[in-house]
């Protein structure tokens, strides 16, 4: 019975997560795609503005994205029941991708924030994520 309840809860979460974070169509033409090289840190399916994909650049500055439209790279995994209890969430950052470097192509998009269609905002959205290295030297000598 407990397993059925967990599976049902997970299915409901997945349905709500998908429905609440699906981007809407932009009202204006999309700006040009920008590209940066970043290290993946973590993923959070935070309540509020939506999911958060956390990265760092080579200088150590934190950069967040609130959506990922690249269907070939998923930065999160479904956690086991035990892990979910500890994390307080059913999803988390993929440990196989944490610490890896990506060439991230992104652009600002207008999306629905939360579960209300009227609540829209502009967020940076990943268009494509290319794995480029397991590690990159970040302690470059200063000129």
TrEMBL record:
Protein keywords: Signal
Signal peptide: 1-26
Source species, domain of life: Bacteria
Protein's UniProt name: Uncharacterized protein
């Amino acid at each position: 019975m407990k397993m059925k309840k967990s599976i049902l809860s997970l299915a409901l979460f997945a349905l709500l997560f998908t429905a609440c974070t699906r981007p809407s169509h932009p009202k204006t033409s999309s700006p040009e795609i920008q590209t940066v090289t970043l290290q993946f840190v973590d993923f959070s399916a935070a309540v509020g503005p939506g999911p958060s994909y956390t990265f760092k650049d080579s200088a150590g500055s934190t950069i967040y994205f609130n959506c990922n439209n690249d269907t070939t790279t998923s930065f999160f995994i479904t956690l086991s029941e035990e892990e979910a209890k500890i994390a307080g969430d059913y999803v988390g950052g993929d440990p196989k991708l944490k610490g890896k470097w990506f060439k991230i192509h992104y652009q600002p998009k207008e999306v629905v924030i939360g579960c209300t269609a009227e609540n829209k905002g502009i967020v940076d959205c990943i268009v494509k994520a290319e794995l480029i290295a397991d590690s990159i030297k970040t302690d470059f000598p200063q000129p």
